[in-house]
Write a structure and sequence with these properties.
The chain is mainly α. Helix content is 77%, strand content 0%.
């Protein structure tokens, strides 16, 4: 079964657009973090499809780096979210705009 590169790239572009819309339209910090994860997974999918089209494992190696970066992003992001919730008692990003600095 062959998967064409156009189909994989189209799926990656659709996932990236969904993630971008989620970041731009949502005001909840948790949903924004999830949307960023969707965007990172779309980039990883694009790397894997491109690597499979060339018959090399470079895309899979890049995806492992993306997964490691996503894990670090989630850990730091959740720590920041916990601190913002303790201070403002809300996950709304508009309430965090009152911070100075």
């Amino acid at each position: 079964m062959n998967i064409y590169i156009e189909h994989g790239m189209l799926l990656a572009a659709i996932l990236f657009a969904i993630g971008l819309l989620g970041v731009l339209m949502r005001r909840n910090i948790i949903f924004m973090l999830l949307s960023i994860e969707i965007m990172l997974n779309a980039a990883g999918l694009a790397f894997i499809v491109a690597g499979a089209a060339n018959g090399q494992a470079d895309g899979q190696v890049m995806f492992l780096f993306i997964l490691a970066m996503a894990a670090a992003e989630v850990s730091v992001g959740l720590a920041l979210i916990i601190q913002l919730f303790k201070k403002f008692r809300s996950l709304d990003i508009n309430k965090a705009k009152t911070m100075n600095g």
